[in-house]
Amino acid sequence: MHPKRSIGMAEEVRVGKEIVAGDRTIWPVVRITIFWASECRVQAIQIIPLAVLIIEQGAQYALSIDGEPMTIDAILEMAPLLADILEKSRRSHSQKGSRIAVS
Amino acid sequence: MVSSCQISAPIIRLLESFSAVDYISMILLLVVLLLAAILMSSYRLTIDICKKGAVIQGGCKLAWFGLTLWRTEVPPQSAGEFLQSIAKDGKGETEFSPKAKSDEDLRETSKKKDARRSMSLKYPVNAAYSLADITIRLLRSLLLKKFSCCLCFGLDDPADTAIFSGYLYTIAGVLGLSSERISIVPWFHGERLEGDFMAEVEMRPLLTLWAAVQSLRLRQTRLLLKGILGWG
């Protein structure tokens, strides 16, 4: 059903569910730490927010939770899954822009 | 050699000496013994469900002294098909025939609805307490012979997955299920539900009946029952 795991700690960085606030879409990036008691039993799960990617009306920017300045490249390095999301938002914005230009 | 006529002659003479009252009491005694056997003997309910990928299969069996009384099996099918079949069954029960939609039926259903509404307004807190009491008593009358649950699940948000797995571990802890019997593995890579569930429950109808009678001693439970039946 699932791969066998060794006892101990496992870490992974994941993109959370998007939060939509008006025109803004916020994508949280979290670090998940799982403490395995045995190969099929979880002792504890820790989720720490690392950064957020904000997309609004064609503009995209990243914010680090620790307050340090963050670039889009840095957040993409942290969570490569965000590349698809960014690409989709750029494509949808360019399509919208072209529609406006035509009308 | 003793012939069968020689043996049966005293039996026939004995039966002839019985009056109608004796026969009735004998039949009553037999009925009581039969009922006692049915109520005191143990019934075994086995549930086995497995979901792997998109395919779901399993079965449910009720046995009495090793004799299968009822059995149903879910053949290997996709989860969507399984849910569709359940939805169809539900629709079949709730659909009304044109004849049943007569005025009297409509009046009766509206009365029942009103009774339910008044019950839900009258006894919201008491109902929760009574239901908890009945559930606990009924669960105590059951004996869990075998149990194993292996679940791997994931929701669309990793945070929700973590919170939900915490709830599941809490429920397992409250129910006293040991870690060997239960395995819950959170999946943080997207939506997923896979696993298998097997339980074998032994129940004695007499104990369950006694639990139901005991729960009726509580005033709130009686009020709840009255409300459900529309007597209150």
Fold and architecture overview:
- The complex is a heterodimer of chains A (about 100) and B (about 230).
- Chain A is an alpha+beta fold and about 100 residues long.
- Chain A has helices at about 70-80, 80-100, and strands spanning about 10-15, 20, 25-40, 40-55, 60-65.
- In chain A, strand 2 and strand 3 form a beta hairpin.
- The longest helix of chain A has 21 residues, at about 80-100.
- The model of chain A is unreliable at about 100-103 (pLDDT under 50).
- With about 230 residues, chain B is α+β, with helices and mostly antiparallel strands.
- Helix content of chain B is about 55%, strand content about 25%.
- Chain B has helices at about 5-15, 20-40, 80-95, 105-120, 125-140, 160-175, 205-215, 220-230; strands at about 45-50, 55-65, 65-80, 140-155, 180-185, 190-205.
- Chain B has a 6-stranded mixed β-sheet with strand order 3-2-1-6-4-5.
- The model of chain B is unreliable at about 95 (pLDDT under 50).
- The interface of A and B includes residues 40 and 47 of A.
Task: Provide tags for this entry.
heterodimer; A: alpha+beta; five-stranded antiparallel β-sheet; 2 helices; 5 strands; 27% helix; elongated; disordered C terminus; B: 232 residues; alpha+beta; six-stranded mixed β-sheet
List the SSEs and their pairings.
The complex is a heterodimer of chains A (about 100) and B (about 230).
Chain A: E1 8-15, E2 19-21, E3 24-38, E4 41-56, E5 59-64, H1 72-78, H2 82-102
Antiparallel strand pairs in A: 1-3, 2-3, 3-4, 4-5
Chain B: H1 4-17, H2 20-40, E1 43-52, E2 55-64, E3 67-78, H3 79-94, H4 103-122, H5 124-140, E4 142-154, H6 158-174, E5 182-186, E6 192-203, H7 205-215, H8 219-229
Helix pairs in contact in B: 4-8, 5-7
